[in-house]
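Reply to dn_fold:

You asked what the input looked like. This is it:
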Amino acid sequence: MKLSETPAPARPPEVTSRPPRRATRPGALLVWAAVLVLVGQMAAAMLLSARGDAPTFDEQVHLTGGIAYLRYSELRVNYEHPPLVKLLAGLGALAGGGVRTPDPVLFETARQGVVARALFYGSGNDPDALLWRGRLPMMAVAVVLALVVFGFARDLFGAGAALVPLAFVTLDPNVLGHGRLVTTDVGMTLLVVACLWALWRAWRRSWRWLPLAGVAFGLALTAKFSAILVAPAVGLLVLGVGYARARAGAAGRGRALLAAAGGAALVAVLSVAVVWLVYLGIDPWLRFDPALFPARGALAGVADALPLPHPYRAGLRYVLFFDQHDRPAYLFGERYLGGRPLFYPAVLAIKTPLGALAAWALALAALAAAPRARRLGVAAFVLFPAAWMLAVAMTSQTNIGVRHVLLVPVLLAVATGALWALRPRGRPVGAAVACVLVLAAAASVWRVHPSYLAYVNEAFGGPDRGYRLVADSNLDWGQDLARAAGWVRAHPGGPVWLLYFGSADPRAYGLYAVDLWRTRVDRSRMHGLVLVSASVLALYPEQRWVAQGREPVAQIGHSILVYRLP
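and this is what came back:
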């Protein structure tokens, strides 16, 4: 992508024009007060809701991996995800002290699920306390993401306008839902957005921001493998920045191209160096030597060619291998295998507040009338990476959760800063429109507390209809197990049967029910209550007998359905 296509004067306005004026001192105080309120309600929402959530599907193995990295320098556990975010969670878990781990040999020999269950339920640890301490650093990462969005938007649109993107990010149910969990999606999103912000500053201000972009992208690569899918977009932006900066200094086309290539090489070297530093920091000898999965295709060839640690390349091949196999997915009541192009656009439409969807559309309209420099900056550093990520995801064979494209709504939230300057027919109504849309989003999101993972907007019937539309981490990831135990205690009488989608131990959360996954029963003799995870009904057709001819008598957290058998 070229950011400057024709010879330009030594100081072109799109490179050297001043950023928007910052607020005066009283105005700045009001802005920072609003920042504190918005970030404070985000932190409160995550803290208050996370306490009631049982471990979701991946959290136990993620946290076990982080503890293994820190305590035993063992990269084997959960190597199909890079270690950075899990390291932070492990630091939080171990900071409280008193964590008992199973035999170290188990970390080197057993499957990760076995190790995780031994750590959580077989070593004398309090699973709730262990998970809570691991989740706290994740919530801090989500808060930092919100602040980075504010900083990026402030550079693009000004301080007052940046409150609009901050509001939409702090009210995004997908950020709130996953920002309080020991998962890698929010961490990767934060680091990619930070990289894009640094690239924008390298274009508009100084070359010195380019190395920071390289470091940020290297950290993103160590947070989640899907960051590598954004690498071509980042590479094009780096080339464009280098070329534009060189042309701004009156360099000819040849020298500008060389400068662009040099900048790209610098970012690439720094990114690779950061990955090596993280892996060597965990295990200086890189003792873990896994076999490579037989993935195929161009990305597998890239994985082999990358000058990165062998455990990193092995983990990347693992992810590619499973992406190339038909995994079950669920959308609009239909179970299917593999991927469909419309899956991720559809789940974004389902799981984004209507106020935010309207704000995205109006922001694009407002950008059409924005100054050229701002329009170019937002298009190149915000909209282009978002479109790239969504387009790549639409080719994936893994249709699991909106969390895999979390970068898209976060970048579109950055673009909503353009609403501030909305002036239809010359009327300055942008601030009022933005406030109305933010309040609409807030009302929609706050009403589902604490069930942010199960959020569905009003156009699709709200979270009560979620189980008819989506599954897995879009709705039911095992988070409501403890709430199900409380519901059963409040409704005693008769036998209780369970079909649970998750990795937690129901007994550890006070739910004593007959596990229908492990128990053979004569269905004609069954009576009482059956608690079924929505993802079980969606993804396992052989278990849909529970719901045939019946409607649920209750929903627990919108993810566990209760059926009564006569």
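Residues 477-565 form one domain.
Hope that clears it up.
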